[in-house]
Specification:
Layout (H helix, E strand, L loop, with lengths): L1 H27 L2 E7 L5 E19 L5 E18 L6 E8 L4 E8 L2
Antiparallel strand pairs: 1-2, 2-3, 2-4, 4-5
Length: 112
Amino acid sequence: MKKIFSVMIAMMMSAAVFAGANDNEAAKGKSMFRVIANNNAELYKVIYIANKTSKVKISIYDEDGAMVVSTVVKGVEDFMKPFRFKRMPAGTYTVVVRDGFSVTRKTFEHKP
């Protein structure tokens, strides 16, 4: 009986430690995003998810480093933002997402 009680106490303490770690991580704020193309590569969607609201700036650069488009989204934790590439030349593009937590870059190949 004493052994079962000790195991239960240890489990409860470890659960509290893990819960505290998750709260600390959430307080820091985290985000992620993906770039998804439609079937004919005319539309790319940036899907953004975060655990806190933040001002988010999305910039897309061509392979020469020239900014193609830039936009800001405010006051939401997650969103989907479409970008039309119907008239854009083929090439490698870089999406840069700046929010209150980090700056993240992802590249994609546009093949019209």
